[in-house]
Design goal:
Blueprint lengths: L9 H8 L3 H8 L7 H13 L17 E7 L5 H16 L2 E7 L6 H10 L2 E7 L5 H9 L4 E4 L11 E5 L1 H14 L5 E4 L6 H17 L8 E2 L5 H12 L7 E4 L2 H14 L8 E6 L2 H5 L5 E4 L2 H16 L8 E4 L2 E3 L24
InterPro entries: HTH_LacI, LacI/GalR-like_sensor, Lambda_DNA-bd_dom_sf, Peripla_BP_I
Protein name: LacI family transcriptional regulator
Pfam family, one: LacI
Length: 355
């Protein structure tokens, strides 16, 4: 994040408004003995200066804990639930409170950042968020440390601290597993094209395919979102290609579950006709039918590392690295099998209703 400017004080606002510090304090506390004109001027300057009235922290007050905001940019899913569990567990270990929210007003960057600081948050952990320069600047102005888990974009500002996994190695391992099973027509169905984690997984896939001399056929790489429905619709498009893939590497488990459903709707058997590999290893992966072969991200550990790093930043400590990557691991289950013999007929593609 950019160098943090000095936090605005009551004296700063009072000097700008041409009134006393006591008058500014009265406005903040909703006192009635301030003229409407003065009140309006002071309130406007409080907003311009990004003034934040922090809660008082009293020694020995058990109710006042370090509070970390874990903010999602989408509804809860299996991935974010794992992250939150790790964050909550880490918070309990260091006597910090974890507040989970879904971002709703980040378009108003200044008000969003001031709201977090005014609520007494010591730091923000953003999960799979796409951050703008305005949002980063707003957080810096209120001196609120930020840690991002699996950022969807690569902020140009230096110093943004992030936590992720070895996405390239995971993409490489997933594709090498399918190649070792004899597959050559392997497609990649991923998330947003600009997402850093998706780019790394895609690069791992391409590196494995190139090393094996396996061509990436036209239409075999598709970008979308990390959502179940993208697996359903993307899988259907892949099955309609002139040379349909015999294996699909999905950029996350939710996409893989969508591909499973698309295969079921077409009468394709997994893994006899189609092998599928996911990425995440959420709890649902073990309960899928068949159980999903996937690349395990240490999601709970990522949540814990993010919280501990955020607290260190809030305490004014320096961190050794602005980006931490935890190791991934391929977990082989029942959704992958040797490729069907070349030229063997697939069952007819019957179309059923897809839920």
């Amino acid at each position: 994040m950019p160098a943090s400017p000095r936090r605005a004080t009551l004296a700063t606002v009072a000097a700008s408004a041409g009134v006393s510090v006591a008058t500014v304090s009265k406005v903040l506390n909703g006192r009635g003995d301030v003229s409407p004109v003065t009140r309006s001027r002071v309130e406007s300057l409080l907003e311009q200066h990004d003034y934040v009235a922090l809660p008082q922290r009293r020694r020995g007050d058990a109710a006042v804990l370090d509070t970390i905001e874990v903010e999602l940019d989408d509804d809860l899913n299996a991935y974010s639930t794992e992250i939150i569990q790790g964050a909550v567990r880490a918070g309990a270990e260091v006597d910090a409170a974890i507040v989970v929210s879904i971002r709703t007003d980040a378009d108003r960057a200044g008000a969003w950042a001031r709201g977090l600081a005014t609520a007494g948050r010591r730091a923000l952990v953003a999960v799979t968020s796409e951050l703008t320069a305005e949002q980063l600047t707003a957080l810096s102005r209120v001196r609120l440390p930020l840690v991002v888990i699996d950022p969807l974009n690569l902020p140009q500002t230096r110093g943004v601290t992030s936590v992720g996994s070895t996405n390239f190695a995971g993409g490489l391992a997933a594709t090498q597993h399918l190649l070792a099973l004899g597959h050559r027509r392997i497609a990649y169905l991923g998330g947003p094209a600009t997402a850093a984690c998706n780019q790394a997984r895609l690069h791992g896939y391409r590196a494995a395919m190139e090393a094996a001399g396996a061509a990436v056929l036209p239409g075999y790489v598709r970008a979308g979102h990390f959502h179940y429905q993208d697996g359903v619709t993307g899988g259907a498009v892949l099955f309609d290609l002139p040379e349909a893939p015999t294996a699909i590497f999905a950029g996350c488990d939710d996409i893989a579950f969508g591909v499973l459903e698309a295969a079921r709707a077409r009468g394709l058997r997994v893994p006899e006709d189609l092998s599928i590999v996911g990425f995440d290893d959420t709890q649902v992966a073990r309960m899928a039918s068949p159980p999903l072969t996937t690349v395990r991200q240490p999601l709970r550990e990522m949540g814990g590392v993010a919280v501990r790093t955020a607290l260190r930043l809030a305490a004014g400590e320096r961190v050794d690295s602005h980006h931490v990557e935890l190791a991934t691991e391929l977990v082989v289950r029942g959704s992958t099998a040797p490729a069907p013999p070349e030229g063997s007929p697939r069952p007819p593609l019957t179309r059923h209703a897809v839920g």
